[in-house]
Each structure stands twice: as structure tokens, then as C-alpha cells.
Amino acid sequence: MSIRVRYFASLREKMGRVEETLAAEGLETVSDVWKAVSEGRPLPEQILCAVNMDYATPESLVADGDEVAFFPPVTGG
Amino acid sequence: MSIRVRYFASLREKMGRVEETLAAEGLETVSDVWKAVSEGRPLPEQILCAVNMDYATPESLVADGDEVAFFPPVTGG
Amino acid sequence: MTVELRPTPFEPFAELSRFHESMAEQRRSAGALATFIGTMRDFNEGDTVTRMTLEHYPGMTERQLAAIVETARARWQFIDALVIHRVGEVWPGDPIVLVGVWSSHRAAAFDACRYLMEELKSRAPFWKKETLGAGERWVSCNTPGYSSCG
Amino acid sequence: MTVELRPTPFEPFAELSRFHESMAEQRRSAGALATFIGTMRDFNEGDTVTRMTLEHYPGMTERQLAAIVETARARWQFIDALVIHRVGEVWPGDPIVLVGVWSSHRAAAFDACRYLMEELKSRAPFWKKETLGAGERWVSCNTPGYSSCG
């Protein structure tokens, strides 16, 4: 399966990359995706996540072709 | 004593005058002023009153030279 | 703090822009501006309204508006406020009232702006007389403003 | 309903005026317009801020803003709404966000306008990075907006 993973703002700088595409098998949830891109670390509590541009939770399911995004609390307005 | 009495909006039309000056003695309260201009009738409940351009009550005291106003509920904005 | 009565039509966005520009350096600390603009509708209580006359109590109206602004100023932190209200003859679509509150914080701007409008509608001596197809009538009361249709 | 992201400076009063004019006949039933304009301050948390970069998530930001407007529309009766938000480089005094809600009733206009701002600040994917004299920093969180200093 193929999952596009995107990072924004301070998390983007921390990860040192804007996005990447995971080709790994066995990714069932957003949490699995995070572990795959962060050497198995748990998702930091304050980090928000989205699947296909809708807000999601670490338990949200992911499917082949999905876009998963991770980012810090939003500060617009 | 001399009291200037002013009317606004629908009350002005009802009274048939914009203002008048009372020269009567013994006017102690706004309520007395109303009675003097309306042939002794009680002040209608919904009518607001002001003394020298500050909101007042029927019990508010009046003094020589005061301006007393009567008007219906306000509808600005 | 500016309170104005206007006997002729005004353009609310131009007024806001002018006032905003006139604040000069203060503007940089006023990160939040909440405004309300009330315009004349062409209907009321089911009837078509073709024209309206706004009567006021010269002297008392300005005094009450200033008092309302001062009360708000004691309650919320804001940098400046603008209140403009029409008097005289008004036609459908004409702006009637403009309130703007500049603050460093949006909660204060929103709350003070709304307070000014509610107080203005309940305390400032203005009276609307509507011209309908079939004559004239005085508007009898303002609707309470803190409960919304939501 | 209009939601726009702007990569360059905009003039909020001109935008409001233009949008207001474009409503044509609807304007006559929209007697109430509540707006909020947020501009960049030249300080934050005690520090002088000389510049700011607004990052967003193209696609998701527009989608979330549109969803916020639709939720408000289901909750309050309003005729039209305008949301404009800057992205990219912003300087002190520059408008960042503009929200306007046109309604027949002031309570709905006020409540929907405030709701749009609070939801925008808590849900729309924007991130501010401040340039200070001594470097840069990300703004870590937005302040809650429903409690005011009053």
C-alpha cells in the first residue's frame, strides 16, 4: 500500500521534510503511520492529524492511497 | 418655579405639542409634572421620562429650571 | 472615543477605513476590530416599508451614547470605539447605525461591540417612524438582542 | 458564502464594501452586518514582532473553512457570509483575517460572526511563525475567545 504523509509548521521543521510516501504494508491506523515515519515513537499528545484533509484520531483507519497529515495546534485568525 | 417639558415621537403627536413651560408652584416630582400637563392623569406605564437629559423615574425630584422629557420606548439602532 | 449623529447618508466602510487610518500608530496594537452595521430593511412585521424617519432628543441622545461608551470602557479593555447613528429621513438600504470597537483582544472587541449595540438600542433616545404604502406608524419597541435564532 | 485565502495584502473595508454591493437586492433584507477584522500586532508575549509567516495546508484549509461556514449556516439564519484569510508573509498592521455575516437579525449576525472566528481559530489549519529581533518562533497556541477581559 501507498500512503502520502505530510508535515506542517514546527513539526515539518522537526521532521526535516515536507512530505514522504510510505510504501510499507500493514499500516492500519494513523498511529501506525506515525510509528512508521518516526522510528516507532508514540504520537506526541499535542500533535493533530488528518486523513484526506479531514481531522482524524490516532485510531482512525487508513487505506491505500490516503493522504495522512501531522501538524501542531493551529494558530490562525 | 419654571419647568420646561418636552415630548417626543408618538407621545409628542398625542400631546399635540413639542414642548411647553410650566410656571406652576408645588411641582415636586416628575409625576407631578406629568399630572400638570395631562389634566391629572397618571403617567402611562410604558412612557419613559428624563430630567435634564438623564433617565429618571416618576418619583424623581424636579427643581426650578429643570428640563423634563416624556417619551415612548426607544427604537433606535 | 467618537460618537456622531448624522443627518445625511453615510458610507459605513469608508467611515471605518477613515477612522482606522486616523488611529495611526495605535492601530498596531489594535489587533482586533469588531463592528456592527445596521441598515434599513424594506419590510417590517410583514409590511413593505418605503421610508423611515428617525427622531431623536438633541443633547440627551449624544449624552446617553457617550455614557454607554464610557460604561463599556470601564468594563472591557479597548483602544478606541466609533459610534455613528443616522437621524432624519432614511430609505431602504441606508445605513442607520455603525459601531466599531478596536482592541488588542478579540473577546473584548466582540463583547464591547455587542454591548454598545444592545445598550444603544435599549437606552439611546431614538424613535423610528415608518412610512408604509397605507400611511405611517411608529415602531413600538426594539427586539431583545442577546438571544439569537441559533 | 465566500471563503478566500489571499497570498497578498488586502484592504478589509474595501472588501466588505465590494461584497456588500455585490449582494444587490438581498442587501435590503440584510439589516444586520457583524464583522471581525484581525490585524497583525507588532508585539506578542512581550516581544517586538517585525514580521510573520502564515503557513497553511492547501486544500484542507479551504475545506475546513467551508465546513465551518456550513455548520454556522445550519445553526443561525443568515443571508451571506464572507471569510478572507491571509497566507504567506505578513507585516505589522496588515489584516490577517476578515469575517462578515449578513443577516436580517442582529443576534444571528453577532453570534454567527463570533462562531466563525472561534471555529476558524481552533480548527482551520493555519500556523503563524513570528520573526523577532533575535530570530524566529512558532506561535504555540491560540487564546480561547469566548471569555473576555470584561
Would you kindly provide a written description of the structure presented here, covering whatever features stand out?
- The complex is a heterotetramer, with two copies of chain A (77 residues) and two copies of chain C (150 residues).
- In chain A, 19% of the residues lie in helices and 27% in strands.
- By secondary structure, chain A is an alpha+beta fold.
- Chain A has a single domain, classed as Ubiquitin-like (UB roll) (Roll).
- Chain A starts with a strand and ends in a 6-residue tail after the last strand.
- Chain C has a single domain (2-138), classed as Molybdopterin biosynthesis MoaE subunit (Aldehyde Oxidoreductase, domain 3), CATH 3.90.1170.40.
- Chain C is built from three helices and nine strands; from the N terminus they run βαβββαβββαββ.
- Chain C has helices spanning 12-22, 60-75, 106-123, and strands spanning 2-6, 32-39, 43-44, 47-56, 80-86, 88-90, 95-103, 126-132, 135-138.
- In chain C, strands 3, 4, 6, 8 and 9 form a five-stranded antiparallel sheet that branches.
- Chain C is elongated, with a radius of gyration of 16 Å.
- The relative contact order of chain C is 0.24.
- Chain A binds chain D through residues 6, 8-10, 50, 53-55, 69, 71-77, and chain D through 38, 54-57, 59-60, 63-64, 85, 96-97, 117, 120-129, 138-142.
